[in-house]
Specification:
InterPro entries: Amidase_Cbmase, Bact_exopeptidase_dim_dom, Peptidase_M20. Keywords: Hydrolase, Metal-binding, Zinc. Its cofactor is Zn(2+). With 398 residues, this protein is α/β, with parallel strands linked by helices. The chain folds into two domains: 282 residues, Aminopeptidase, CATH 3.40.630; 111 residues, Alpha-Beta Plaits (2-Layer Sandwich), CATH 3.30.70. It contains 13 helices and 15 strands. The strands form three sheets. Strands 1, 2, 3, 4, 5, 6, 13, 14 and 15 form a nine-stranded mixed beta sheet that branches. Strands 9-11-7-12 form a four-stranded antiparallel beta sheet, with helices on one face. A two-stranded antiparallel ribbon has the order 8-10. The radius of gyration is 22 Å and the shape is globular. The two termini are 22 Å apart. The structure holds (2S)-amino(hydroxy)ethanoic acid and manganese (II) ion (MN) (3 copies). The site of one manganese (II) ion (MN) has 5 residues, from loops.
């Protein structure tokens, strides 16, 4: 089946009517979950499927083994996300395998399509949770204890999905199998449409991290409490949101976002007792911690002015990644010299790049918009991406 055909099969699964976009998470509710769909489709291609100790799903063409060629991505999404971010890499992997099988190709190296768990961190807050656990770049206890908005832990959710949380953690056996990892992904940001190219090779991923700012004040009555008597955490939270943009604008090429702000208890006629906001900060090179320190200073000053307290907690951080040189050169040569793209979006390939030769292919997104229902890739470009992936997998596994 073509990659577009697979995409059509999963279209709508996990779409959130309130937002119009997708809201799919690791170990999700059945109506959102694509894990079974993937297993069924992979088995249909004669692949051997296994779920690892961290909830990542591996579909092997031939027996699992060392020096494997591995491709894949994720099936979860951000809240209100698009149809391509994640799934495009997975369906292109399945479609590339099917095309190679149809052409009579037989890999001389083990070859796998993998689905990593909770890449967006949309439910449990830490991005690339499955690949961080695989590589041991997150403490297994910390991962097990991560909670979703309903207080359900990652361990509980994984356990319900049949993954034994007690076994989570670095999976050296599977990591050592990977000879090269290649992730195909929809382009996030506007680039290829201006370059007139359907496919690009990934070059770098900029450093990025997430910080939680917890403001505490005095919950109180909106009408009975004079302004002078308030310690309203909404004020320093609001001041911090504007400080994020003001301070990031002073740092070349910085991106900093507050996309989530949660007042508690959240009543219209109630002065909040606490307000939590999450900062997503990304600066190429070493600049992210410095920017976050500036923002934290502004948050503390604003909290003090309002008689509130603030606690800042780093929830995740990964430094700049440059993809494997030799692989980038090979990809470029095998695909006829497509453009190279840096990206501000994080990916499982960027986590793996610290452990195995890793690379990325991007497929043109004419809107340049991602993490939104407007994220898009033309069917012709989707097929060009899957064909490019098939070419590269064949070259690597021949
Ligand atoms: O947030 C990111 O950069 C990625 O889409 N997970
Ligand atoms: Mn969901
Ligand atoms: Mn994403
Ligand atoms: Mn993604």
């Amino acid at each position: 089946m073509t990659a577009s055909g697979f995409l059509a099969e999963i279209a709508g699964v996990g779409r959130d009517p309130k937002r119009g976009g997708y809201s799919r998470h690791a170990f999700d509710a059945p109506e959102h979950d694509l894990r079974e769909w993937f297993v069924e489709r992979a088995l249909g291609l004669g692949l051997d499927v296994e779920t690892d100790r961290n909830g990542n799903i591996w579909a092997w063409w031939g027996p699992p083994g060392r020096n494997a060629v591995v491709t894949g991505s994720h099936l979860d999404s951000v809240p209100g996300g698009g149809a391509f971010d994640g799934p495009l890499g997975v369906v292109s992997g399945l479609s590339a395998v099917e095309a190679l099988q149809t052409n009579g190709f037989r890999p001389r190296r083990p070859l796998a399509v993998v689905v990593f768990a909770e890449e967006e961190g949309g439910r449990f807050g830490v991005p690339c949770l499955g690949s961080r656990l695989l590589t041991g770049t997150i403490d297994a206890d910390k991962a097990r204890g991560l909670r979703d908005a309903d207080g359900v832990t990652f361990a509980e959710a994984a356990g319900k999905a049949g993954v034994d949380p007690a076994r989570m953690g670095r999976d050296t056996e599977r990591l050592d199998r990977i000879g090269q990892f290649l992730e195909l992904h929809v382009e996030q940001g506007r680039g290829l449409i201006d370059l007139g190219a359907p496919v690009a090779v990934g070059s770098t991923v900029i450093a990025h991290g997430r910080w939680r700012f917890s403001f505490a004040g005095q919950g109180n009555h909106a009408g009975a409490t004079l302004l002078a008597d308030r310690a309203d955490p909404m004020l320093p939270a609001a001041a911090t949101v504007t400080a994020v943009r003001r301070l990031a604008a002073q740092v070349p090429d910085a991106r900093a976002t507050v996309g989530r702000l949660v007042p508690t208890p959240g009543g219209t006629n109630v002065i909040a007792s606490t307000v939590d906001l999450w900062l997503d900060a990304r600066v190429p090179g070493q600049g992210t911690p410095g920017l976050v320190a500036e923002i934290s200073r502004a948050a503390s000053e604003a909290a003090q002015e309002e008689g509130c307290r603030v606690e800042v907690t780093r929830e995740s951080y990964s430094g700049d990644v440059v993809f494997d040189d030799a692989l980038r050169r090979d990809l470029g040569g095998w695909l006829g010299g497509p453009p190279e793209l840096p990206t501000g979006a994080g990916h499982d390939a960027a986590i793996l790049a610290g452990f195995v030769p890793a690379g990325m292919l991007y497929v043109r997104n004419p809107t340049g918009i991602s993490h939104s229902p407007e994220e898009f890739a033309e069917a012709g470009d989707v097929e060009a991406g899957a064909a490019a992936l098939a070419t590269v997998l064949e070259r690597l596994a021949r």
